[in-house]
Design brief:
Helices cover 38% and strands 13% of the residues. By secondary structure, it is of the alpha/beta class. The protein has a ten-stranded mixed sheet with strand order 5-6-4-3-7-1-8-13-2-14, with helices on both faces. Strands 9-12 form a two-stranded antiparallel ribbon. The site of one zinc ion has 7 residues, from helix 14.
Length: 512
C-alpha cells in the first residue's frame, strides 16, 4: 500500500505538496490574488455608481425566489427582467485569503479593495497594514458617498467600504471611523454603537453627527419626513438589525423597507454635483439562511427584488449611472429538491412557504424559553403554516427549553438552526411543508451571482470571476487608478500561527 507521500510522488504532485504550506494550492492563491482576472471590461465612465450587495445567498436561492415571486405573488421576478433589459451577468468565486469559505468582512473587503484578507478583518492585513477602500478613493475624487443596509449600519458588509479594523467586532471603532469619513448617507440598524450610554468611550456620536450637519432619524416616519441632505438613520435600538421583511409585512413591525431606505439615499445623493457612490445591502438573506428559515429567506429576497426594481428605474432615468449587483457568498446551502411522480410534488410543496407568517427567530423569541407545549401545535399552524407531528412538538419543546440541541445533521453548526432542524423534517409522503433543504447553518463555498447594468454598457457575459475583480471594474468605471498592497496566503498563515504561539486567539468562527 502506498502512503500519502508515495502517492503524491507517484502522482507527480510532490513539488506542489512541498511548496504548499497551506490547504490551498499555490496556483489558486496566485490566480486569485494577482492578475489572472479578465482585463478591463471596456466599461463606460460612470458619474454615479450603485453597488447592491446581497448577503448570504446564491444561485439556488435566486431560482427559489423567482418561482415564489411568479407563482405565489403573481408578479414577474424583477431580477430576470433586469437580465432581459440588458444586464451583464456571471458568477463569482468568494474564498477569503486563508479559507475556502469567506465571512462577510473578508468578502466586502475583497470587492472594496481588490485584495483578499483573513476572515473577520475589514480592509486590514493581519500584520496591521491597512487597505484603501473604493469609497475612500471615490470621495477623494469628489464623489458623494452613502451606505444603506438592513443590518446594523456598523456590520461587516457596509463597514468594508469605509472602516479599517483588525476585527469586524470593533463596531464602536467602526462608528467612529464613519464619523471621521462623513459619508452623506448612513442608513441601517443598531444605535448602540452611536449612543454614549452603550459605547465604551461614552462618546455621544449622535450629537457629534448632528454637530456636523446630519439629520439623525430613528423611525420610518422620521426618515420619510426628513429634509436633511446629510442623514444618519438608526432604525433599531441596541445591537438589533432591522427586522426581517416577513415580520415587517405580516407582524406589523414598523421599520422602513430596504427600498424606502434606498430611495431616501438616492434622493439625497442624486443632487451631488460630482456624482456619488452608494452601497445598498440586502443584509439579512444571510441571517435567514443561517437560521435555515425558508420563509424568512424568501421574503428577504422579495424585499431585495423590489429594491432592485427601484435601483434599475433610477439607473434608467439617470444617465451616467452604473449598477453592480453581487452576492458576497452563499449561506445555508439551501436547495429545493424534486420529489413525487415526475417531481410533480415539488411545486405545491414549495408554494406552502406562503403560509409562513413569521420569521423563525421571532417565533422562537415569542414562545420564550418555557413554552406551554399544549399551545405549540397551534402556534406552528398559525405562524409557520403547517401541522407538526406529535414527535416534532415534543422535540421542539425540548429545544426551546434548552434541554436538547438538535444541531444541523450534516454540519458543524451550533444551536442556531436547531429549531429549524426539527421543524423542517418532513414525514414521508407529506407535501404540506416546503421542500427546501439546507445543508448547513454556516456559509458555503459556492459561486454566487454578479451582474452589471447601466448607461452605455453593452451587455456581455462576465464569465466566472473572482470577487476582487469588482474593485477593478469599479475603478475603471470611476476613471480611477489605484493598487492596494498584496499579501500571500502563506504570509498571512504564518502571522496567524505566530499569534497563536503568543497566546492570542488564532481562529474565529464567524457567524455572519
Ligand atoms: Zn455575508
Ligand atoms: Mg452583510
Ligand atoms: Zn452569514
Amino acid at each position: 500500500m502506498m502512503d500519502r507521500r508515495q502517492w503524491i510522488r507517484a502522482a507527480g504532485l510532490a513539488g506542489v505538496a512541498a511548496a504548499a504550506p497551506s490547504p490551498l494550492s499555490p496556483s489558486l492563491s496566485a490566480l486569485t490574488q494577482r492578475g489572472a482576472a479578465p482585463g478591463p471590461l471596456g466599461l463606460p465612465r460612470a458619474r454615479n455608481l450603485i453597488f447592491f450587495a446581497l448577503d448570504g445567498t446564491g444561485f439556488e436561492d435566486l431560482a427559489t425566489a423567482s418561482h415564489f415571486s411568479e407563482r405565489v405573488l403573481g408578479r414577474p421576478f424583477f431580477f430576470r427582467e433586469f437580465l432581459r433589459r440588458g444586464a451583464s451577468s456571471g458568477a463569482m468565486f468568494t474564498h477569503s485569503l486563508t479559507a475556502v469559505v469567506t465571512d462577510s468582512a473578508a468578502a466586502s473587503t475583497a470587492w472594496s479593495t481588490g485584495r483578499k484578507v483573513v476572515n473577520g478583518a475589514l480592509c486590514m492585513y493581519p500584520d496591521g497594514r491597512p487597505l484603501r477602500p473604493i469609497l475612500d478613493l471615490a470621495r477623494e475624487a469628489g464623489r458623494a458617498t452613502g451606505l444603506a443596509t438592513t443590518t446594523r449600519i456598523t456590520h461587516a458588509t457596509p463597514a468594508g467600504w469605509i472602516a479599517r479594523v483588525a476585527d469586524r467586532d470593533q463596531e464602536d471603532d467602526i462608528a467612529l471611523q464613519y464619523l471621521e469619513f462623513q459619508p452623506e448617507v448612513l442608513l441601517g440598524g443598531g444605535a448602540a454603537h452611536f449612543l454614549a450610554r452603550s459605547r465604551r468611550d461614552r462618546r455621544d456620536l449622535v450629537a457629534e453627527f448632528r454637530a456636523r450637519g446630519y439629520d439623525v432619524v430613528r423611525s420610518r416616519r422620521e426618515l420619510l419626513n426628513s429634509a436633511g441632505d446629510r442623514i444618519l438613520g438608526l432604525f433599531t435600538d441596541g445591537t438589533s438589525h432591522v427586522p426581517y421583511e416577513i415580520d415587517r409585512r405580516f407582524q406589523g413591525v414598523d421599520t422602513p423597507s430596504l427600498a424606502e431606505m434606498a430611495g431616501a439615499a438616492l434622493a439625497r445623493l442624486q443632487e451631488a454635483p460630482r456624482g456619488f457612490v452608494l452601497q445598498v445591502e440586502a443584509g439579512r438573506i444571510d441571517h435567514a439562511n443561517h437560521e435555515n428559515d425558508p420563509g424568512g429567506m424568501i421574503w428577504e429576497w422579495m424585499a431585495a427584488d423590489e429594491t432592485l426594481r427601484l435601483l434599475v428605474d433610477f439607473v434608467d432615468r439617470t444617465p451616467g449611472t452604473l449598477l453592480f449587483v453581487a452576492a458576497d457568498h452563499d449561506t445555508g446551502g439551501g436547495t429545493v429538491y424534486g420529489f413525487g411522480d415526475n417531481y410533480l410534488s415539488s411545486t405545491p410543496a414549495l408554494l406552502t412557504v406562503q403560509r409562513q407568517r413569521m420569521s423563525l427567530q421571532r417565533f422562537r423569541s415569542r414562545l420564550g424559553r418555557n413554552p406551554d407545549l399544549a399551545l405549540l401545535p397551534e402556534a406552528v399552524r398559525e405562524f409557520l403554516g403547517f401541522d407538526p407531528t406529535p414527535d416534532q412538538v415534543e422535540r421542539m419543546g425540548r429545544v426551546l427549553k434548552g434541554e436538547a440541541s438538535f444541531g444541523h445533521p450534516t454540519a458543524h453548526s451550533g444551536d442556531l438552526n436547531s429549531l429549524a432542524a426539527v421543524l423542517w423534517e418532513i414525514p414521508k409522503g407529506r407535501v404540506d411543508r416546503p421542500n427546501l433543504a439546507f445543508s448547513t447553518g454556516n456559509h458555503t463555498a459556492g459561486t454566487v451571482p454578479v451582474a452589471l447594468y447601466g448607461t452605455g454598457l453593452t451587455p456581455a457575459p462576465l464569465g466566472v470571476v473572482d470577487n476582487t475583480q469588482l474593485f477593478s471594474w469599479m475603478l475603471e468605471a470611476l476613471g480611477l487608478s489605484f493598487s492596494n498592497p498584496e499579501m500571500s496566503e502563506a504570509e498571512a498563515l504564518e502571522i496567524l500561527a505566530r499569534r497563536g504561539e503568543e497566546g492570542e486567539p488564532r481562529f474565529r468562527h464567524p457567524f455572519d
